[in-house]
Amino acid sequence: MTRHSRPIIAVVPAAGVGSRMQADKPKQYLTLLGKTLLEHTLEVLLSYTPIQQIILAVAENDPYLDRLDVIRQPKIKIVQGGKDRAGSVFNGLKAITQPHAWVMVHDAARPCLTHEDLDKLLQIEDDNGGILAIPAVDTIKRASAEKQIIQTEDRSQLWQAQTPQFFRADLLYRALQQAFEHGLAVTDEASAMEFAGFRPHLVAGRSDNLKVTRPEDLKLAEFYLSRK
Ligand SMILES: Nc1ccn([C@@H]2O[C@H](COP(=O)(O)OP(=O)(O)OP(=O)(O)O)[C@@H](O)[C@H]2O)c(=O)n1
Ligand SMILES: C[C@](O)(CO)[C@H](O)COP(=O)(O)O
Question: What's the whole-number mean pLDDT along residues 5-34?
């Protein structure tokens, strides 16, 4: 199976409530430049031709999804999300039917992703897979439970993980299963793959591929999208 012949499937976890956003609806349905955050994210993936299918994991009884025309695109398949992000991703993986597929897991909350970064990720072809990430640019502090700064970390080898995270779908499925069985708290796919013994590659991404998480992130994301 060469790099160019493997099926590429995107799994988009979009079943969160966005509690840190403190908004009146889940953040993926907040509007930027006249479209929801989810529409922006899906449009980036739909327009990236190497992606053959998008599996979208949404909350059970999501009352917003049906209002979006984009979800009726034939490339998009809807599945029910899980109790946490990893559960939503796992449900998405279960819906992949293509043998030898590779999966790009991308947060619905990251609408500013570029095809330029996707191209970089697509260069990965060994079973370790890889993720977009940015090197730490601030001084990093480790704080005690009382949030008192107790020490400064060496940031020279620290990176902030982003998404997409790109792996062979079958290997990621098994790695997540193993992580769940061992009660591992999985906040990204790479942590499950590392637990399974793989060494995912770090691919330097753009710092504007932010995850919209807190209220102030929305205007920043809108600014980045306006420059596209
Ligand atoms: N049970 C969940 C929880 C999160 N997500 C998705 O995972 C992505 C990244 O998670 P995060 O930014 O934490 O989103 P939320 O969990 O919605 O935010 P919060 O933690 O502030 O509630 C988001 O696109 C979110 O919709 C998901 O699919 N299923
Ligand atoms: C997957 C991720 O975006 C990589 O940084 C991050 O772990 C998601 O964390 P969240 O708390 O679920 O937003």
Answer: 97
Band the pLDDT of 2: cuts 50, 70, 90: low
- Provide the 8-state DSSP code for 74: T
Separation CA 44–CA 54 (nearest Å): 11
**Can you tell me the ipTM of this complex?**
0.98
- Write the DSSP symbol of residue 26: -
Q: Tokens 């061992």 appear where?
A: 182
Measured between alpha carbons, how far is 116 from 183 in angstroms, rounded to an integer? 36
Torsion of CA 44, 214, 220, 26, to 10 degrees: 40
Segment 110-165, tens digit of pLDDT: 999 999 999 999 999 999 999 999 999 999 999 988 888 789 999 999 999 999 99
Ligand 2 centroid to Cα of residue 154, in Å, is 22
pTM of model > 0.90 = yes
Q: Which residues line ligand 1 (CB under 6 A)?
A: 13-20, 28, 57, 81-85, 88, 107-109, 211, 213
Top mutation candidate among 55, 84, 85 for ligand 1, by most atoms within 8 Å of CB: 85
Under 8 Å between Cβ of 134 and 204: yes
Give the CA-trace dihedral at 133, 138, 142, 148, to 10 degrees.
-140
Give first-to-last CA distance, the chain, whole Å.
34
Work out the mean pLDDT of the chain and round it to a whole number.
96
Q: Count the alpha carbons within 13 Å of 36 in the hemisphere toward its beta carbon.
A: 20
- Sign of CA pseudo-dihedral 72, 78, 83, 87: negative
